[in-house]
TrEMBL record:
GO CC terms of this entry: nucleus
Record-given protein name: c-Myc-binding protein
Places the protein is found: Nucleus
Entries under CDD domains matching the protein: ZIP_MycBP-like
GO molecular function, one term: transcription coactivator activity
Source organism of this protein record: Pangasianodon hypophthalmus
Coiled coil residues, start to end: 62-89
Entry keyword set: Coiled coil, Nucleus
Taxonomic lineage from the root: Eukaryota, Metazoa, Chordata, Craniata, Vertebrata
Highest taxon listed in the record's lineage: Eukaryota
InterPro entries from the UniProt entry: AMY1
Protein family membership: Belongs to the AMY1 family.
Length: 103
């Protein structure tokens, strides 16, 4: 009898752990999505894997995005510098136009 209670207690602790970690919610959401699919996938396990990993991109995707971010940051910096230079060149001509309009 004591063995039965110990295993019940361990199960309950494990269930609370899964609930606290959000595992139960994630699994429930994926299973509901699978249930609501009008055309059931031929491989339900692949469907579950795909939907569970949708929130957690794999490391190759992260690395590709990191490289793209670095490239875009460099491009942004270059465009910012070009913008500053063009503004400065424009300011050289604007004061003359303002003075002519004031007269």
């Amino acid at each position: 009898m004591a063995h039965y209670r110990a295993s019940e207690s361990k199960r309950e602790q494990f269930r609370r752990y899964l609930e606290k970690a959000g595992v139960l919610d994630s699994l429930t959401n994926v299973l509901v999505a699978l249930y609501e699919e009008t055309e059931k996938p031929s491989n339900a396990l692949d469907f579950i894997k795909q939907h569970l990993s949708a929130g957690d991109p794999d490391s190759s995707q992260v690395e590709v995005l990191r490289v793209e971010l670095e490239e875009l940051q460099q491009k942004y910096d270059l465009l910012q510098e070009e913008n500053r230079e063009l503004r400065n060149r424009l300011l050289q001509y604007e004061p003359a136009a303002e003075e002519a309009g004031a007269e």
